[in-house]
């Protein structure tokens, strides 16, 4: 697999959007970037800051004798077909009084030239005119370069930039994209928004000075145009002229004019840098409707309810409109062109806590996650998918922590969640970071469970929610060679995997020993002298090994390296592995755990029988069925049901097991073992006498 190395800070999550055959990336801190899959560049090209200068007017050419000319130039990347904004305009230059002459100019050196720039495009006016036209192109590597302007006025045709509606002003359409954390694509445009509030180290400021120095900070070029404020001050400023090496920048007022600091002189001050959080930015389209995904005209932005006290926290698409999500609000932005844009607050909406959970179903409806649950909208109405009592579907307590949820999403980690919609299976897959993390103590901020909402119906009823223990830090839809969409996900250890509900092992491959009994080991190793573990390439690195029985039964660890007979894992087992430890590499813990039932009575309940209907398997192995009494996290009893029973079902009977509250779990924890459960039937009898209420005293 090729490695794509970007210049984005590793401490920040990034958002990606594909347009025009390139992947565009942003993280809200660094300048957005773009890659073709092998090379990565900054998104957009910085405009030149120095004007072209006159050399002579004695070269051969066809300029008008005694003509008055001015010049602009732009940087050009021929590989990506991308152009920068305009340079400052040159001083006026006079053509030679003799006919048949041209003007030679110098394109100034630039030691900070954007990677990928290989040409300069030169523009000039007609003799004495106010509009500028393409004059020619010259190779450029950042050194002083001369350019000869020789084409007659009648030979110029292509306008510089674009003309305004009146045809009198030329628009510099190739501005840089904003440094914001979220992006999406629709109709050939990239939409961007949100903000990161940055405050690392301290600031030194001087009353009456326009310069600010930061200590212990990591300034980036992408912060140009952000706002700056000292903690406790009411005045805020725009920042410009960033020197990332020195950690300095200059101040401007909100109109872009130079200004000095108005507060109290001092050092070691707490400060904040931030972009505007309620502005939706969008990339340009040329006059022919062609996408220009790296070009952001200075006025191509749209304020989204700037007075609602909320910042943009996600951008998506619903039906044919943009979907702008804030933390507690949802808006649609209708219209294909900027003059048509109209925003509408979706009634009774909630926002999102994670941009990465936004996905679209097959009908174009948008789905996303909020701290209170999962929601879906058609652009007009919002409804909850996590709480649908009308069809008996609810996992709301997993989000809110109310009641007796089987696990909850970890407080403070909602924004780590990510999701995709699989159009092939008609399912929404949401990864969340839970309190039930199976690899506790290591990488505790990873999303360890995938919650799946199945939109398919059985007998007219939506299947709804279920989940798997599958850790992942990111997820996406990738199309195979035949164009079929597939769900892929990446993990904390650098592995990328395909999501497959029919898989029988968790990435362990199809060759080598995958199950056995240890012949020795330690707290960090498993040894099996008779094994032949897979060792090609990185071997089993990154795959989980499960202890099925014996010493350390139930523990799951990540393999960091292996030989043909020895596995090394992290974190350490609670005890040293010994000859009783039965292991399985890539074992899948496929299970369903129900809610806690109380059957609306205080009487005890008694399980008398469970019946499981399944697809018959060829070899002999068992599914398990566990019961949990009265909110306990430890199983009260476990029954094993043979999956090779020719009848296609298996019944197990239970001894006396009275309990007030009951919870069930059924599944299979092994490797290379398929299991298809069609139906589980549990007989529960009401037993005993009602619980007596104790008389309260005091």
Secondary structure layout plus pairing:
Blueprint: E1 15-19, E2 22-26, E3 33-35, E4 40-42, E5 53-60, E6 68-69, E7 71-77, E8 82-83, E9 93-94, E10 101-107, E11 119-125, E12 132-139, E13 145-149, E14 162-163, E15 170-171, E16 182-186, E17 189-193, E18 202-205, E19 211-215, E20 227-230, E21 237-243, E22 248-252, E23 266-269, E24 271-274, E25 279-282, E26 284-285, E27 291-292, E28 301-303, E29 312-318, E30 321-326, E31 330-334, E32 342-345, E33 359-360, E34 366-370, E35 373-377, E36 382-384, E37 387-388, E38 393-394, H1 396-400, E39 418-422, E40 427-432, E41 449-458, E42 461-468, E43 474-479, E44 485-490, E45 496-498, E46 515-517, E47 520-521, E48 525-527, E49 544-549, E50 556-562, E51 566-570, E52 582-585, E53 588-593, E54 604-614, E55 622-629, E56 637-642, E57 649-653, E58 662-670, E59 677-687
Antiparallel strand pairs: 1-2, 2-3, 3-4, 5-10, 6-9, 7-8, 7-11, 10-13, 11-12, 14-15, 16-17, 17-25, 18-19, 18-23, 19-22, 20-21, 20-24, 21-22, 25-28, 26-27, 29-30, 30-31, 31-32, 33-34, 34-35, 35-36, 37-38, 39-40, 40-41, 41-42, 43-44, 44-45, 46-52, 47-48, 48-51, 49-50, 49-52, 50-51, 53-58, 54-57, ...
Account of the 3D structure:
The chain has about 700 residues and is mostly beta strands. The protein contains one helix and 59 strands. The chain has a seven-stranded antiparallel sheet, with no helix packed on it. Residues about 690-698 have low confidence and may be disordered.
């Amino acid at each position: 697999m090729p490695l794509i190395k970007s210049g984005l800070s590793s401490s920040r999550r990034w958002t990606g959007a594909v347009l025009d055959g390139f992947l565009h990336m942003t993280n809200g801190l660094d300048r957005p970037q773009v890659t073709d899959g092998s090379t990565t560049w900054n998104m957009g090209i910085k405009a030149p800051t120095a004007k072209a200068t006159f050399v002579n007017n004695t070269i051969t050419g066809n300029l008008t004798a005694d003509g008055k000319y001015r010049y602009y130039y732009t940087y050009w990347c021929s590989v990506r077909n991308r152009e920068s904004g305009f340079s400052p305009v040159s001083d006026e230059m006079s053509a030679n009084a003799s006919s048949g002459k041209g003007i030679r100019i110098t394109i100034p050196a630039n030691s900070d030239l954007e990677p990928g720039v290989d040409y300069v495009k030169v523009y000039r006016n007609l003799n004495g005119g106010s509009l500028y036209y393409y004059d020619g192109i010259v190779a450029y590597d950042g050194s002083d370069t001369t350019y000869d302007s020789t084409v007659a006025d009648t030979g110029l045709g292509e306008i510089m930039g674009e003309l305004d509606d009146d045809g009198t002003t030329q628009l510099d359409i190739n501005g840089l994209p904003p440094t914001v954390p979220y992006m999406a694509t629709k109709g050939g445009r990239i939409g961007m928004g949100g903000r990161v509030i940055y405050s690392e180290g301290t600031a030194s400021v001087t009353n009456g000075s326009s310069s600010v120095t930061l200590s212990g900070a990591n300034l980036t070029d992408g912060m140009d145009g952000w706002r700056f404020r000292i903690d406790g001050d009411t005045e805020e400023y725009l920042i410009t002229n960033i020197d990332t090496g020195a950690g300095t920048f200059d101040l401007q007022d909100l109109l872009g004019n130079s200004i000095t600091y108005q507060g109290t002189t001092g050092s070691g001050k707490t400060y904040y840098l931030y972009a505007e959080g309620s502005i939706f930015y969008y990339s340009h389209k040329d006059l022919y409707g062609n996408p220009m995904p790296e070009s952001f005209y200075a006025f191509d932005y749209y304020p989204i309810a700037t007075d609602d006290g909320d910042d943009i926290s996600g951008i998506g698409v619903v039906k044919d409109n943009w979907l702008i999500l804030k933390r507690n609000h949802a808006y649609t932005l209708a219209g294909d062109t900027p003059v048509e844009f109209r925003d509408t607050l979706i009634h009774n909406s909630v926002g999102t806590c994670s941009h990465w959970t936004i996905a679209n179903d097959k009908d174009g409806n948008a789905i996303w996650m909020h701290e209170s649950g999962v929601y879906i909208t058609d652009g007009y109405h919002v409804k909850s998918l996590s709480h649908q009592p009308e069809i008996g579907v609810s996992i709301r307590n997993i989000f809110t922590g109310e009641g007796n949820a089987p696990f909850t999403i970890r407080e403070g980690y909602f924004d780590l969640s990510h999701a995709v919609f699989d159009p092939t299976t008609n399912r929404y897959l949401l990864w969340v970071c839970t309190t039930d993390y199976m690899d506790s103590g290591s990488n505790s901020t990873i999303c360890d469970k995938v919650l799946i909402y199945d939109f398919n119906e059985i007998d007219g009823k939506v299947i709804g929610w279920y989940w798997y223990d599958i850790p992942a830090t990111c997820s996406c839809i990738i199309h195979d060679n035949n164009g079929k969409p597939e769900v892929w996900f990446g993990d904390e250890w650098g592995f990328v995997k395909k999501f497959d509900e029919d898989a029988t092992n968790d990435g362990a491959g199809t060759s080598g020993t995958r199950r056995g009994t240890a012949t020795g080991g330690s707290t960090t190793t498993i040894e099996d002298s008779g094994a032949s573990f897979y060792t090609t390439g990185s071997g089993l690195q990154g795959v989980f090994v499960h202890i099925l029985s014996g010493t350390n039964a139930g523990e799951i660890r990540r393999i960091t390296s292996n030989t043909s007979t020895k596995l090394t894992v992290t974190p350490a087992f609670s005890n040293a592995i010994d000859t009783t430890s039965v292991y399985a590499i890539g074992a899948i813990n496929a299970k369903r755990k129900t809610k806690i039932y109380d059957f609306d009575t205080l009487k005890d309940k008694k399980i008398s029988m469970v019946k499981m209907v399944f697809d018959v398997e060829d070899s002999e192995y068992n599914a398990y069925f566990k019961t949990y009494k009265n909110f306990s996290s430890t199983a009260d009893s476990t029954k094993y049901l043979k999956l090779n029973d020719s009848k296609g079902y298996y019944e197990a009977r239970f001894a006396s097991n009275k309990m007030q509250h009951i919870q069930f779990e059924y599944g299979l924890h092994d490797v290379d073992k398929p299991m298809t459960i069609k139906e589980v039937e549990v007989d529960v009898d009401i037993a005993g006498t009602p619980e007596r209420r104790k008389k309260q005293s005091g």
